[in-house]
Each structure stands twice: as structure tokens, then as C-alpha cells.
Amino acid sequence: MVPKNTICLWYNGAALDAAEFYAKTFPDSAVGKVLRAPGDYPSGKRGDVLAVEFTVIGIPCLGLNGGPAFTHSEAFSFQVATDDQAETDRLWKAIVDNGGQESACGWCKDKWGLSWQITPRAPTAAIADPDRHAAKRAFDAMMRMGKIDIAAIEAARRG
Q: Which pTM was predicted?
């Protein structure tokens, strides 16, 4: 059954590659139906992949091979809450080592230009600390990071 609400992500011919990468990288993710062109069209041929239904961490998505007209931006990102440093490191490394790029404060971008926030739960708790000084120290430490380092944030929180 098609979900009532699906995130549609625009790709320039790489929707299937992206969906397969997400399915092997993230838990509760899978590639579903691959929709192919039934005939030739202005920017493609019969049999080309038009769209791919997939899920990323349980979120239904449709990868649309719409061509080069639009690209992804940081205005949309997947935020992935990780439970520990090992999970954070694994997901960050998978994205960056697969042609992606690092950014700041837990953000990175995959090789298709889609932004990801690989965010451990610990920093969120640290910046919500009722001790405003501890929260600020943790926040300041996090703002200097690319990939989030939980131990460094906890050390900053403690002072």
C-alpha cells in the first residue's frame, strides 16, 4: 500500500544508487518498487529508472530521477539520532567515505548532495542541562565539531 505522505527526493539519474546505499547503511531501511519508463521520453529511454520507492529508517521516500534542474540543499536534511559513539562513527564514515563531505556540528552531505545530521542523543541532553554554564560549555564544544564527539562534549559539560 502506498503511504498517504511520502518524502519525494529529486535525483539526477541516481535514485536507485542512492536508495540502495541508504538501505545498506541505515537500520529499518529498504528498497521497494523500481518504476521504469515504459517508453522513450525527452531526457531518457525506455527502461530507464524513473522513480524508486524506498524507506530510510522507517520513513517512506520516493527517489525521483528528475534530471539536473534541481539539487538538494541544507534546507532539507535527515536527522538521525544515534545511541552511542560507535553508531555515530559508523554512519558518519559510511556517508563521508562513499563520496560525501563533512560539514559542521554533526552535519554531513552524501555524494548525491542530500544532507544528514548524525546526532547522538547525548549532546541534546547536555545542551538542555539545567546548569546553564554546563549547557553552554557543551554547546560551545559541539559548535567546534564536525562529527560529534560524545566524550568531548561530556568533558566540556563537566568543566
A: 0.92
